[in-house]
Amino acid sequence: MNHEQIKKVFKEVCPSGIDFISLKLIKTKAKLCSVKNSFPHSNKLVMDEGVQIEVLHKGQFSYAATHDVSPQGIKAAVNKAIFLNEHSLKWNLYPFSLKTRPSFELRNKKTSSKDLKTKTTLGEINDVLSLACDVMKKESGIIHCEGHGSLRNIETYYLTTNGSEDLNSKNLLDFSLKAIAKNDNDIQTRTWGNTLQLGPSFFQKDLFKKEAFRVAREAVELTHAPECPTETMDLIILPDQMILQIHESIGHPLELDRILGDERNYAGLSFIKKENFGEYQYGSPKLNITFDPTVETEAASYSLDDTGVKASKEFIIKEGKLLRGLGSLESQERTNLKGVACSRMSSWNRPPIDRMANLNLEPGVATFDSMVSQVKRGIVMATNKSWSIDDYRNKFQFGCEYAQLIEDGRTTKIVKNPNYRGITTPFWHNLKEVGDAKSREIFGTAYCGKGEPNQAIEVGHASPACLFENIEVFGGA
Ligand SMILES: [Zn+2]
C-alpha cells in the first residue's frame, strides 16, 4: 500500500470516541558487511517492516504492533490497542492529558541525511574493508584484524487522529576497524569506528587505508610500551573517550524516566533528584551540555521526535548548572519539570521512551597545545576499552586503549592499559579547560540500551578534548 492508501485505511478503521490514535509505519533496509583478516566473514541484507498503533484514551496509553501491513493487519492492530486500553484503564498509574500528543503541521517528505546514493553494493563495502585489513596485516606484530560496515535506511510514516502527518527518511552508517597486536605475552588492541547519519559515499578507500595504518601502528606501539603509572595527575580526554564520559555520567543520570524510577529494575536509578533541576552545580563553569538533534550528520539528528514533538537545541547544563532533564512530554507532565524532544523508539515493535539523542559538550576556547602546555605531570587518553559505573551513575572507572604521558608541558612516551576513576560531580568540577571547536569531533553509537523489553538505539555525542585536574589514574586493568 502507498501512503495515501494507508491514510484511507487508518481513517476507516479508527472508531470515533477514542481520544487519540496514531499509526507509525517503519521500513528498514540494511546492508551489513564484515571482514576478518581480509576474508569476507558475513554479508547480509536485512529488510524489516511493521506498524505500531498507539492509543491515548481516558489518560491511559496502550500499544499494538504488527508486521502485517495490509488493511486487515492495521485494523486488527487498532482494535487490539483499543482492547488493551479498555482492559488496562482500571490499573492506570497516571492520568496523562492529551497535551502529551500535540498535533503538528503537515510535513512534506523529509530526508535527514544528504547522501542518498543507495547503489553501493555489499561487494564494494567488502572491498574497502578488505583493503583496510590488508594494510593492518602488513604491520609487523599484528595477529588479527577486522572491519565492519553497515548502512541502514529507515523510513517512518506517521499519522494521527488529531490531523498530523509526517514522512521521514534517514541513512545511518555504522563502521569499525580493529587491529590486535602481540609482543611476547602482551596483547593490545586499537580500534576506529563511528555511527553517523551519512550515506555510502563515506566508504572511501583512502580514508580507510589511512586509519587502518594508524590503528595497526598504534596497536603494535602499545605492545612495546610501559604500563600506565598509578598516581593522581591531570588528564586530557580525547573526543572518542569523552563521548562515553558524557553518555554514562551526564546522559543516563539526567533521563527523567530514570529519575522517576521507571528503569530501576533494569538499568538503575540516578543520583539526581527532581528538586536538583535549576539549582544543582553539576560541574565547573566551563561545562556546557546541550541536547541538540539539529546537528547535521550526528547519529540522533531529527526534526520531530517519535511523538511528533518539534526538536530544538536546548542547554541541559549551562556554565556547570543543571537546567533541565532528558524527558518526554509524559515525563515532563509527571515531574512538572522542563524536558526536551527525546521520546524515541528503536522500531515499530517498541513504545517510545525517554532517550538521549544527541547530547553534546559545547566547545570552549583552549587549543590542544595550550592544554598540554599547562600540565606539569599528566596524561592524554583516547578510545574507550572498558567501563563500569554504579546504578546511580555516580562512581565510575573507565579504561582506554591508548595514552601518552605529559611531562613539563610536553607529550612524551606512550603507555599501555590506561584507566581513570572518579565520582560524577567532583569529576566534572575538576574540568579545567574545554578544547576549542577545532578539537571537537562528532561520534555516535548504535547500541545505547534501555527499556524492558530492551531497545538498542543510536545516540550521538560531539565533544572537544577536555582537561581535568587531579584525577586518579591507574594502569594494569
Ligand atoms: Zn546508554
Please describe what this structure looks like.
This protein has 477 residues and is of the alpha+beta class. The protein has two domains: 3-223, PmbA/TldD fold (2-Layer Sandwich), CATH 3.30.2290; 231-474, no CATH class. Helices cover 21% and strands 39% of the residues. It is built from nine helices and 22 strands. It has helices at residues 3-13, 71-88, 122-138, 205-223, 239-251, 256-259, 329-335, 368-373, 424-429, and strands spanning 20-36, 39-57, 60-66, 110-111, 142-160, 165-183, 186-196, 231-237, 289-291, 314-318, 321-322, 343-344, 353-354, 359-361, 377-389, 395-407, 410-415, 419-423, 431-434, 441-450, 455-463, 466-474. Strands 1, 2, 3, 4, 5, 6 and 7 form a seven-stranded mixed beta sheet that branches. The model has no long low-confidence stretch (mean pLDDT 95). Bound molecules: zinc ion (ZN). Residues 247, 252, 448 line the site of zinc ion (ZN). The site of zinc ion has 3 residues, from loops.
